[in-house]
Amino acid sequence: MLDTLISIGDTLKEIRETKGFHLQEVAEKTAINYTSLSRIETGKRLPTKPQVQILASFYSYSEQELIKHLISDKILYEVQNEDFGLEGFHLAEQKIKYGNTLFNDYENLEKFELHSRRYIGNKAKLTDWIMQIIQQETTGNDTFIDIFSGTSSVAKEAMKTYKNVVLNDILFSNNIAYQAFYDNKKWDSKKLIDIINEYNTLNPQNIRENYFSKNFGGKFYEKDISKLIGYIRQDIENRKKELNSKEYAILLTSLIYTIDRLANTVGHFDAYIKKPITKRPLNFRLIQTEDFAGAKIYREDSNKLVKKLKGDIAYIDPPYNSRQYSRFYHIYENLVQWKKPELHGVALKPEPENMSEYCTSRAKNAFKDLVENLDVKYLAVSYNNTYKSKSKSSANKIKYEEILEILNNVGETQVFEQSHKYFNTGKTDFNDHKEFLFLTKKYD
To answer: CA–CA separation, 319 vs 292, rounded Å?
Structure first.
């Protein structure tokens, strides 16, 4: 095996001499100019790729090995003749090693769409059905209120019809996403592309352990990935003064979307999978914004907020079972607030906050209070039949009959239904699962 550290010229000369050929003989049989061959072997010039291929064939030598020598010499030549050549080489090495891509402009880069993130209770697959019923059965297109917006897939669709759309969710991570996707504030895409290009060339081996990696590395995320996440989150915070609120929100939301599919979970953070985590690159990407001038964004208790709102229709999709979303998505809540709290238990959760009454025995009363205080013409309420579940955590806190009774007391109610495959971690049998939409025209 030839020394891999010698130049392509030295390599070709050594092969020729080992094979017992004179230089003139090689020139005649390969039709490569004698002077060119001489200059190549003495290192005064580099061969072309076609010349290397001809010589590899003539010498019955590995073309792949010779091409690798040629490429390395080309890189070396560039490094030696540039003031920052060595730095450029190391940067290129990182890009290749970690499989990352650099971007040039926002319009042409691959971006995360709103529906790209995993989220329990996501209505993305039901949105068309929901909005079709609403448009058929209601009038008015001024204000649509989505009081428990979640991923905001329904609110996004409503933006095609209504002048104003209210988005509200108690989670910090959802609220920042609404600002990122819908806030109509101007923002500098080139600035953010330059920042994510920096993130995509980070080498985790050069990054110290941090709050995120110490807590979640090797559990919810692979160790190197967790170091990158912690470093990037802190860097976004350090840059906050040079970013406007929209740019800050886009970077945070893009970080959440980037790491969502890298999480060592089944789609939420109530637990992690206790198996070795596959090493993968971060590949930070931006979201596809959906700027909407009529977006009104809140992060408030829904029952308090409705007393300050007025609109044509309110869409209501609260949590119905005991699964608290603030606990399911505690890592994203932690990342967005970045208070670095002390964590507890196997799932490494902070102290409870933003706990919803709709996940407790008080759900029925909370729902009744909500619909009675909504100043709208129509109520559209999503509901699924998981109250028949054998699992206590999956069992609904409000029954179908209770929903119907409460709505009938405030207006004329129709019920629509659709078969739907429900999010399931495997403990509950959801055969014949259905999604219901209650549509109520409120009494004057």
So the answer is: 26
